[in-house]
Amino acid sequence: MWLKSLAAFAWGVLLAICIVLLSFHLLPFAAGLKLFIGLLLGFCVWVTVMAYCYSRNTTKAANMVCGKWFAVTAAANVLLFYIPVY
Amino acid sequence: MIFWAGAITLFHDEVAQWAITPHHPVQHSQQDLPLGSIVEHKLAEYPVDQDGRLRINMPTTLVPYYIFYLDIIDELAENGRQTMLILVDPKTGETVAGIDDFVLSQFIYHLHYNFNLPGGSYLVGIVALVFLFALVSGVFIHARKLFKHFFQYRVDKQRRDKLLDLHTVVGVMTLPFTLMYALSGLILNLAIVFQLAFAMFIYQGDQQALLNDAGFERVVEPRSSNPMVMDNAFKLIEEARQQDDFELRNVIFHHYGAANATVQVRGSDTARFAQRDEVTYRIANGEVVNQVNAEQNNAFRQGRDVFVSLHFANFAGMEVRMLFFILAMAISAMIVTGNMLWINKRQTLRQSSPRSIAIASAVTLGGCGGIIVATAVGFLFERLLPASLISRGDWLIGGFVATLLVVIVMSINVTNIKRHISRLLLLTSALLLITVMADWLMFAEQIITLWQDGFTAVIGVQVAMGFMAAIGVFSALKLRDVEQANAPENLNHPISN
């Protein structure tokens, strides 16, 4: 249970950050609004990922799925970083 | 503990008025001294660091003193200065007390948002995250019966059903409220995670650019060596105060007394919900450097302010805060029943260790019961300790923490839970009643004068203490009745009775 809790917390924060950064790049709003949306979205994603991890039978199963999503979102972020937004 | 302290913090200013004003009544009939002359006197009185800022909170109907935040030179401090808070009588200009002298309301507030620990705000942020997670998972678990069992509370069934029903009924009914509190708590305490991510990956390490986009613009410039008289600043403050639909809350000076001094005049727009109204002036020529109001706003700042207003329930009157107080108490009960259900379930599992169950029981019982008794001790100490006592605040905090620890230790291996809770409730009630009696024995004349002058929160807090004492006695007697009714089966069943 402790391992699963640790995985849920860590994958939650990592995926939340990736998705929040993506939303900042993609949303066509003013910076202040994007920051606020990002903040709310970030906490919601974090908790959703935690709930998902706890719903899996094993930590390994949670790691596999979250790892894949992290790879996809992190890669998307890296690619988008080459498009100047500032 | 967080919800309990948060519930009391809803009445932070009322508790502060109850604690301070009987010691230092403000002469209502007397005229206020000009703010400028009070500021000059205070700056001459204390070793103020010129590079620091000066913040002054305005007197309110609840706390009728100026609160000065002075950056004082302190060679032992990390950056050579520390912020000192003092309460100043607006009629006489005298320093009434250091804010640490009457620490109860501040201590409970800090307990709510950082446990009075270094880095505690992040810990509370994690607790808020777990709370949001518990809400989401609770909704998933209960989703099928959400509407069917909306009002179900089985009083005639076995104890587990009662606990479960109390947990779910309170959980479902308070869901919008708890979601708001979990999210606003996260925004206030754990936003740092996303702030760092934004600063690092979007703003390439430029924190100030991020803060500017978030509506927290700041003028950063070195202090000018040319001195300047500050009279214009107080004219600007007075002009701002006279505006329609504007409630002045505080002012912040940067580089006070220098040619490039600025003053930030901060308040709220009383005609709108959660609308901050701020303007920063260059004092030398009255130029507006920065402004935030209904027309010139930032979405992030506006959104955050809405959550902050909801969190502190400061958007409406006393009635809404009382409703929030009742809801917060109900949520505290929901959390305790959730804990008890978990402990009960663990007891039925073969592999669970009796030691870990005993610790969880002691923490649940001792922590929850202890915080209630400790709060009553805090109120009693706040009233009984002499105002001139050195380190008065430390004595109060020491009494609070010692009481909490003693109750936790006393709650280990308790065999009869109901009798234990009943005793704690009676002790709390006795402490609260002694506090009210001490109020009248020590300050009867001042309390009556304060009431006549419109400072009704002193008696209001006493009424609240009397009401809580009555509830405590009633609940204790109820518990004793139940205990007597099924006495033989009660023994040797920790937490399950």
The total number of structural domains of chain A is 1
Instruction: Name the overall outline of chain A.
Output: elongated
Radius of gyration of chain A: 14 Å
N-to-C terminal Cα separation of chain B, in Å? 23 Å
Count of discrete alpha- or pi-helical segments spanning 4 or more residues of chain A: 3
Number of strands of chain B: 8
What's the mean pLDDT score of chain B? Answer: 89
Strand content of chain B: 5-15%
Strand arrangement, major sheet of chain B? 4-3-2-1-5-6-7-8
User: Which structural class best describes the helix and strand composition of chain B?
Assistant: alpha+beta
Strand count, sense and closure of the main sheet of chain A? none
Question: Number of folding domains of chain B?
Answer: 3
* Uncertain regions spanning at least 5 consecutive residues of chain B: 489-497
Please give the count of helices of chain B.
16
The oligomeric state is heterodimer
Transmembrane segments (chain A): 7-27, 33-54, 66-85
Keywords (chain A): Membrane, Transmembrane, Transmembrane helix
Question: Your description of this structure?
Answer:
The complex is a heterodimer of chains A (86) and B (497). Chain A has one domain. Chain A has helices at residues 2-26, 31-55, 59-80. Chain A has 3 helices and no strands. With 86 residues, chain A is mainly alpha-helical. The radius of gyration of chain A is 14 Å and the shape is elongated. By secondary structure, chain B is an alpha+beta fold. Chain B has 3 domains: 1-23 and 104-112 and 353-490, no CATH class; 24-101, Nuclear Transport Factor 2, Chain: A (Roll), CATH 3.10.450; 191-312, Nuclear Transport Factor 2, Chain: A, CATH 3.10.450. Chain B is built from 16 helices and 8 strands. In chain B, strands 4-3-2-1-5-6-7-8 form an 8-stranded antiparallel sheet, with helices on one face. In chain B, a hairpin with a 6-residue loop joins strand 3 and strand 4 (95-98). The longest helix of chain B has 36 residues, at 417-452. Mean pLDDT of chain B is 89; it is low at 489-497. Classes of the chains: A mainly alpha (86), B alpha+beta (497). The interface between A and B is medium-sized, with 28 and 28 residues.
